[in-house]
Amino acid sequence: MANARIGLVGLGVMGANLSLNIAENGFPVAVYNRTGAVTDAFIASAGALSERLVASKTYEELVAALPRPRAVIIMVKAGGPVDAVIEGLAPLMQEGDMIIDAGNADFHDTRRREAALKAQGLNFIGMGVSGGEEGARHGPSIMAGGNPSSYEAIREIIEAIAAKHQGQPCAAHFGPDGAGHFVKTVHNGIEYADMQMIAEVYGILRDGGTERERCAPAQIGHLFEQWNKGPLNSYLVEISGKVLQAFDPETDRPMVEMIVDKAGQKGTGRWTAIEAITLGQSPSAIEAAVAARAWSAAKETRRAGAELFGDLEAEPLPRPSEEVLERALLAAKIIAYDQGFKILSAASEHYDWGIDLASAAEVWREGCIIRSALLDDMASAIREGLPHDQLIFAPRFVEMLRDGAGALRQVVAYAASAGLPVPAFANALAYFDTMRQGRGTTDLIQAQRDFFGAHGFERVDGGAGQHGPWGGAAG
Ligand code: NDP
């Protein structure tokens, strides 16, 4: 007998918290987990909300608990596990029913799953959810894709559980098939860049300058806490401040110093870079952040490198002030977001999704990991129209960048002089400098290509497909 409004498969960290969020908002949820003991423990720990949870031990029980058209959210490990759940669930569902994948799927998988389920008469929503455990429980940012009428059927629930910005739900439908998961992927790509840039500032303050200038983690954390009260106000700056001021209860040393400097990555940052390159884009700050994580994994190699080159003399410029670092971080961050929005725009055009970029900025204002005060300005700037599709050309950001670009340059110059790696900052600056150079150096690249491959070039005084006077020297 149908006694739940929606189903949810996968009671890991995200699924358990999302179920409680849905139940708390008044919608009974039928829950299922592959390992039944996890379901029992979840129900036992749900307190008063257990009244709105329907424990199911089989897919049959789950499906039987739902009214038609049924809607089941899948919140399991991305990749094969999602296909395994669909394989178990789909044969039990009927025409018009809906499966919602709320994990971090590769949007190509979402497109494939949507097409396969459509052929079986089932609807499929690919839905990115951001905000980690806390967000899932009390209000995540939600990015959905798929058939718009299917989204309409679950919209009431999605908007109720989502984070709110001034009363407006941070949830939206971005377009057909993979659009929602793609917006989530780019969100994560931007998250990589944002995190890396904050870490680069930490590196400069920790390792740069004279012995007296070098800061302990707690000092840097305190500075981030101050920055969080200004234009850099954001979740990532806030948590970085907290993390850096935490101490290890076992050794009493700064917690961050007890952590091996090797970062993991689940794939979304990498997917952003790969898809961008496929689309002829290059989000250099995001790519640099992905690269920095990959390089970090080679800990033993870096140790060997330190033996060989660690003593190379650097001639550092004076270390930039905290105020300069703050302005540099703000400028670099705007450039990274510009690159993220450009990928969204390119993918939307390529896949014919019709993604509303302003809506992406709006749903990222609360609930998600990249939430920040800047996103409100970004949403407004996009709504006002971006000259040449560039966020950095929007009047309100032109002003900020005219103010911050010098600081960014000072920080990159300092880091290079001191031998400190700042890949995301340096790549953000290179992109900015390229975008403000009316005449670049690709005229020479075009000449080289024409010389060795007769590729042709366009003349400044008119005429495409021209060739140079290389005298048949091409090889
Ligand atoms: P995990 O990614 O660790 O997945 C755990 C769940 O997956 C468990 O319920 C587990 O069941 C189930 N599972 C694993 N393999 C299978 C399978 N073959 N068949 C059926 N079920 C399976 O949990 P999270 O909650 O961290 O993440 C869920 C999704 O949300 C992922 O796609 C993740 O990338 C995404 N996400 C996670 C965030 C986070 O902060 N953790 C933030 C945003 C998105 P069992 O108990 O039986 O092992």
From TrEMBL:
Binding site for substrate: N104, S130, G131, G132, H187, N188, Y192, K266, R293, R449, H455
SUPFAM superfamilies: 6-phosphogluconate dehydrogenase C-terminal domain-like (SSF48179), NAD(P)-binding Rossmann-fold domains (SSF51735)
Pathway of action: Carbohydrate degradation; pentose phosphate pathway; D-ribulose 5-phosphate from D-glucose 6-phosphate (oxidative stage): step 3/3
One Pfam family recorded for the sequence: 6PGD
Domain of life: Bacteria
GO MF term set: NADP binding; phosphogluconate dehydrogenase (decarboxylating) activity
Catalytically driven reaction(s): 6-phospho-D-gluconate + NADP(+) = D-ribulose 5-phosphate + CO2 + NADPH
InterPro entries for this protein: 6-PGluconate_DH-like_C_sf, 6PGD_dom2, 6PGDH_C, 6PGDH_Gnd/GntZ, 6PGDH_NADP-bd, 6PGdom_BS, NAD(P)-bd_dom_sf, Pgluconate_DH
Active-site residue numbers: K184, E191
6-phosphogluconate dehydrogenase C-terminal domain mapped to chain residues: 180-471
Binding site for NADP(+): G10, L11, G12, V13, M14, G15, N33, R34, T35, V76, K77, A78, N104
Enzyme class: oxidoreductase
Keyword Coiled coil applies: no
BP GO annotations: D-gluconate metabolic process; pentose-phosphate shunt
E.C. designation(s): 1.1.1.44
Keywords of this entry: Gluconate utilization, NADP, Oxidoreductase, Pentose shunt
UniProt keyword annotation of NADP present: yes
Subunit structure: Homodimer.
Family: Belongs to the 6-phosphogluconate dehydrogenase family.
Cited function: Catalyzes the oxidative decarboxylation of 6-phosphogluconate to ribulose 5-phosphate and CO(2), with concomitant reduction of NADP to NADPH.
The protein, known as: 6-phosphogluconate dehydrogenase, decarboxylating
